[in-house]
Structure formats: structure tokens, C-alpha cells
């Protein structure tokens, strides 16, 4: 299927999906131009993807959206994660966002 990528180019996409590990992002799989048979993935924020591909709305209609912002207190932290024991956030709901 054809999609408009982040740079505004029309490209043939092998598969589109919502990545369950990164809510709020569309995952697009493309066949490599240089390595036949190899697939690579690119992720697009849903809002940006729909601006360029409004005909793909059915893809995301039943998926979770990212909260615009939230306030919490760090109760536990690791090198790449933080936790707030008073919140019930979905895993990776803020992936790729600034804290």
C-alpha cells in the first residue's frame, strides 16, 4: 500500500500497524531497496501520520492515545525507566517523550 512518509514522499509500504510497545506510534514496514527480501521498520507519531495519510484513519480508531501530559512523583527509577506508585500508566505510554 502507498503511504506518504515523514518527508512527504510517496512510498510502497509492506505493512502498517500500531506498535503495542509504543502507544501513539504507527509502525510501517518497508522492503529494503538495497537488500531484496529484507524488511526495515519506521515509526511515525499517529498525529503526524494522519496529517499526511488521512485515508488510513481506520488503522487507529480503536487504539490508545498518548496523554498530552501528566504529573507524577518518581518513586522508583532505573537507567531507562521511571515509576510512580500512585499511577497506573500503561507500559511505554510515554516512550520517546521528554520527562
Primary descriptors:
99 residues, mainly beta
Describe this structure in words.
It is elongated, with a radius of gyration of 16 Å. It has one helix spanning 46-52; strands at residues 2-4, 10-12, 15-18, 25-31, 39-45, 76-77, 82-83. The mean pLDDT is 83. Strand 6 and strand 7 form a beta hairpin. The chain has a three-stranded antiparallel β-sheet. Strands 1-2 form a two-stranded antiparallel ribbon. It has a domain at 2-63. The chain is mainly beta.
What is the count of β-strands?
A: 7
- Specify the overall morphology: elongated
Percentage of residues in DSSP E strands = 25-35%
Rg estimate, integer Å: 16 Å
Distance between the termini: 36 Å
Q: Uncertain runs with pLDDT below 50, 5 residues or more? A: none
The largest β sheet comes out as: 3 strands, antiparallel
Q: Estimate the mean pLDDT confidence.
A: 83
Helix content: under 10%
The strand line-up of the biggest sheet is: 3-4-5
Q: Structural class of the helices, strands and pairings?
A: mainly beta
Tally of helical runs? 1
